[in-house]
Amino acid sequence: MSTIVDVAARAGVGVGTVSRVLNESPLVSDKTRERVLAVIEELDYRPSHMARNLSLGRTLTVGVIVPFLTQAAVMDRIRGIVATLRTTPYDIVLFTVETPAQRSEQFRNLARNRVDGLLSVSLSPDDQEVERFRRAGIPVVLINGRHDSLPRVVTDDTAGGALATRHLIKLGHQRIAFIGEPTLDPYGVGWSECRQIGYRNALEDAGLEIRAEYQLLGQPGRAVAHRLTRELLRLPEPPTAVFVASDKQALAVMEAAQDMGFDVPGRLSVIGFDDIDIAKYVGLTTVHQPLFESGCRGAELILEALQVETLEPFEEVLPVDLVQRKSTAPPTS
Amino acid sequence: MSTIVDVAARAGVGVGTVSRVLNESPLVSDKTRERVLAVIEELDYRPSHMARNLSLGRTLTVGVIVPFLTQAAVMDRIRGIVATLRTTPYDIVLFTVETPAQRSEQFRNLARNRVDGLLSVSLSPDDQEVERFRRAGIPVVLINGRHDSLPRVVTDDTAGGALATRHLIKLGHQRIAFIGEPTLDPYGVGWSECRQIGYRNALEDAGLEIRAEYQLLGQPGRAVAHRLTRELLRLPEPPTAVFVASDKQALAVMEAAQDMGFDVPGRLSVIGFDDIDIAKYVGLTTVHQPLFESGCRGAELILEALQVETLEPFEEVLPVDLVQRKSTAPPTS
DNA sequence: TGAACCTTTGGTAGCGGTTCCAGCACCTGA
DNA sequence: TCAGGTGCTGGAACCGCTACCAAAGGTTCA
Predict the structure, then answer these.
(1) CA atoms of A116 and A51, how far apart (whole Å)
(2) Which residues in chain B have their CB less than 8 angstroms from residue A50's CB?
(3) pTM
(4) Strand A269-274 with A241-244, pairing
(5) Which of A146, A164, A242 is nearest to A201 (CA)?
């Protein structure tokens, strides 16, 4: 592989001049520029990124750190990030974390020269980590995460929870249950929690009773969903509708209800949250949150931060909306 | 941010010694090592990746180049790659291409210092590009792509096509149609094509007639699927079953058939290919191809290639298997 | 006692770019 | 004719690390 020195020698000029040609500096005569470009072409020369980075002190790289990729929602967000960054000179380096230990290790390593900026998806750094990034001059933008001193784009989970619940109320349901997931990230206010708050708010506003036995939490997964669904449906006064905090769990709940002979939406209305791909195919009524757009927006913010050096922290709340499909209907009574 | 020089100065040793400590060289006395480590801790020092890379001539980075991420199958493959590479020191840089021009530009840039190795998903470089990589000493592994001089992992599309078709034959179908996609990548032998070949082979083996009017191609998408489905079902002798070359298209075909009042699988059996997430939820019988595993395998191969410097080209064919769900049934005579 | 060796160390030359400074040729105006 | 620009150029310093070489100090053995 040829280097800038080879090009300079062959073109009979100094390395400085070649560098100027590469960087489109106006301080090169047309004649020289042409000669250099010809040699570059001839040698099929490409400047070394590494050397350029070291010299410039920049990597032209944006880190994207995400929890394991099993979540469809995370994948959609990545899509948005990729789509936005593709038109820029920035490359994307993907980091995944699965355990808390990995997570801090990754954050720690990231703060050193590897990337120019960081997009953290569904993961929030703690104060110490934020401080490290600040010292290193690496801007961080959170997507679906929270830290008061960082710019971030979040979904209006509370509003979404209320929206879903109001939809059920409007259909005439009175006994409405909630199924959610326990919060994992110690640093975030769990999305499931927020959606549950929205649920309670909506019930309260409608003057409906908030019953503890109607609010169940469990890990995502088919088995757990079956158990929770059974628990609900065997109540002396079973709910006629259920708001499930995520589509993935909602699908499992639908399946469980049908397995138990409860027709959906005939005897049980089910509404989810996220609007993942599958929802459309199985006709799940759900709250659409702009996953793809959240990736785009996050990417735009990090690009901005990369320009201005410091972006004042603020929270951008993305709106949610209801997508009515076939899994909700008025109660039969 | 402190550098190796700062650490050396503060510890009262030379930079060489610090470097040795960092790289766990045995040529350092315990006493010195301890002192250096203490200073590293104290200054919260992390070596610069860029400088290290430049000096080492390696980036500890694997490039992953993929077509646009709208395909669920590509996402699953990426998952496998990420899962495998996570346990290694290699980082993943994601490149996407959308147009042929972008594609060669990406391949061209990639051949220079940016990555140590390349995983190409569903994209095959041409001879010139392969030669460039060879000269640059960058190993390339293809996942779901073909080039005779590159190691690659592919799905047994022909066998899968035959498998799907035999399943329909075994159920008793005689009039079996095929719907596929036109081949796009000029450098690959289209997967759709291979699956179609498997289809024809199976029909031939069973002594069934191969009819031209039963084999239709069209771009993926709901509208086209509707048109093709209508075309098939309005034939004087409409097929009783159809093998669709991809799940995505199969879903659209199912929908189209149902819209036209053809019950699936009552009046038309539909079988797909890929086993994407959604297939499970809608009960689509399909041919499972190990997408996640293909990513894992590709990643393993590139790691191997990175070790041995040169990996002789070979083709690893991943097996497929039938997943029977609810979209296929014996024909109602 | 000193030659020969081993262990540990410091210093420096790259890696391949960018950037800055000095210098050269040419031009302008007094 | 010469001081002072201006336009372009070459070369060296530098980015922060690794790898190598030379050397210092300690040990062994004749």
Answers:
(1) 16
(2) 50, 53-54, 59, 113-114
(3) 0.87
(4) parallel
(5) A164
Task: Of A181, A168, A184, give the one whose Cα is nearest residue A228.
Answer: A181
B64 C-beta neighbours (distance < 10 Å), count:
27
Residues B152, A180: Cα–Cα separation, whole Å: 43
Find the distance separating the first CA and the last CA of chain B, reported in whole Å: 78
Q: Which residue is associated with the tokens 């289809």?
A: B199
For residue B55, say whether its CB is under 7 Å from any atom of strand C: yes
User: Is the pLDDT confidence value at A178 over 80?
Assistant: yes
* Contacts of residue A186, Cβ cutoff 8 Å, sequence gap at least 6: A100
CB A325 within 8 A of CB A164: no
Over the stretch A110-162, which tens digit does the pLDDT of each residue have? 877 789 999 999 888 889 889 989 888 899 999 998 899 999 999 999 999 99
Q: What is the C-alpha separation between B214 and A214, in angstroms, rounded?
A: 53
Q: What token pair was written down for B40?
A: 């590293």
Task: Indicate the residue of B49, B78, B114 with minimum beta-carbon distance to A114.
Answer: B49
Contacts of B119 in chain A (CB under 8 A): none
Distance, CA of B290 to CA of A119 (rounded, Å): 30
Report the relative pairing of strands A315-318 and A152-155 from DSSP bridges: parallel
| Euclidean distance between CA atoms A322 and B95, whole angstroms | 34
Residue B326 contacts A where some CB pair is shorter than 8 Å: no
Residue count of chain A: 333
CB pairs A-B closer than 8 Å: 104
